[in-house]
Every structure is written in C-alpha cells, then in structure tokens.
C-alpha cells in the first residue's frame, strides 16, 4: 500500500485509496519512463490506472523472478517459450491470469478476458476489461501483446 506524506515536516500519513488530483501520485505507470517534469517516473493518479499498471506488471512477471516472492507472476512467458499447440493453450493462459489476479490483486474485477495466440510469430495478444471491486461501474480496457522476441 502506498503511504503519501503531504509534507516532510508532517509525520501523519494519508493512505491513498483513490485520487483524481494530479499532484498526488499513487503508483508508477508502465512503461517506466520519466515524467513530464523529467525528475520522477511517470506516475498513476487514480486507483484504476494504478490497477491497470499492476495487472500488466503481474502478467509480464515470470514466476521466480521476484526475490522473496517466488510464486509472484503468471508463467505466461514460460507458456510462450513452449511449443504453442492444441486448443488448450489459450485456455491455459487465461486460467493462469485469472488465478494469479485473484491471488495477488484481489481488489480487481476481471471480465472479458480474451487470449489470442498467433502461432506464426509465437506471440499472444491479451485483452481484458478491469474494474475495482469498490467501483464496478467504472471499467478500463487493457490490450497488449507478448512475443518470444520480447524476452
């Protein structure tokens, strides 16, 4: 959880749940890069945009990559490195994503998860709708692809 201090002199923290203020960042946006002022990383300013970055980061993390959290990640990279055969491939990746989002990001509702394998160039296109369990009416769409060449 992020702890935001409004001033260095004030020791009482404010816990960010959601914010639409552009001066209070909640998380780091993906892809990681410099902010407009060039001093800090690009940040997310709403809980839903932070959730979007978190779910993308979870999917792109390989199991065992994170020290002290060997089960963090989805294993999608490992599936792409294996021969992409059969009708169960897309279902397997979809089930892995759903399972890990439920474990690591339980505050996110995941709907309309579509996984499309491109067998010609060994890539997977993933698209999904997400919302926060605290605000299920506000929906954000995520779409990205992963390929063997990205590794």
Care to describe what's here?
- Strand 5 and strand 6 form a beta hairpin.
- This protein has a 3-stranded antiparallel sheet, with helices on one face. A two-stranded antiparallel sheet has the order 1-2.
- It has 151 residues and is α+β, with helices and mostly antiparallel strands.
- 25% of the residues lie in helices and 28% in strands.
- The chain is globular.
- It has a single domain, classed as Nuclear Transport Factor 2, Chain: A, CATH 3.10.450.40.
Structural descriptors:
151 residues; alpha+beta; single chain; three-stranded antiparallel β-sheet; Nuclear Transport Factor 2, Chain: A; disordered N terminus
CATH top-level class: Alpha Beta
Distance between the termini: 29 Å
Helix content: 10-25%
CATH fold description: Nuclear Transport Factor 2, Chain: A
| Low-pLDDT segments, ≥5 res | 1-16
The gross shape turns out to be globular
Element pattern in H and E: EEEEHHHEEE
Name the CATH architecture: Roll
Strand order of the largest sheet: 5-6-7
How large, in whole angstroms, is the Cα Rg? 17 Å
The SS-based structural class is: alpha+beta
Portion in strands: 25-35%
Number of strands: 7
What is the total number of structural domains?
Answer: 1
Average pLDDT score: 77
Tally of alpha and pi helices = 3
Largest sheet: 3 strands, antiparallel
């Amino acid at each position: 959880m992020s702890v935001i201090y409004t001033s260095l002199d004030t020791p009482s923290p404010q816990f960010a749940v959601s914010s639409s203020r552009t001066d209070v960042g909640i998380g780091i946006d993906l892809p990681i890069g410099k902010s407009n002022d060039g001093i800090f990383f690009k940040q997310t300013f709403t809980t839903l945009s932070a959730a979007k970055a978190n779910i993308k980061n979870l999917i792109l993390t390989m199991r065992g990559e994170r020290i002290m959290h060997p089960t963090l990640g989805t294993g999608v990279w490992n599936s792409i490195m294996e021969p992409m055969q059969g009708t169960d491939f897309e279902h397997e990746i979809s089930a892995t994503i759903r399972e890990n989002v439920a474990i690591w990001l339980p505050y996110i509702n995941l709907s309309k998860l579509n996984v499309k394998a491109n067998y010609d160039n060994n890539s997977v296109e993933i698209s999904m709708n997400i919302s926060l369990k605290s605000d299920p009416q506000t929906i954000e769409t995520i779409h990205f692809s992963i390929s063997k060449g990205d590794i």
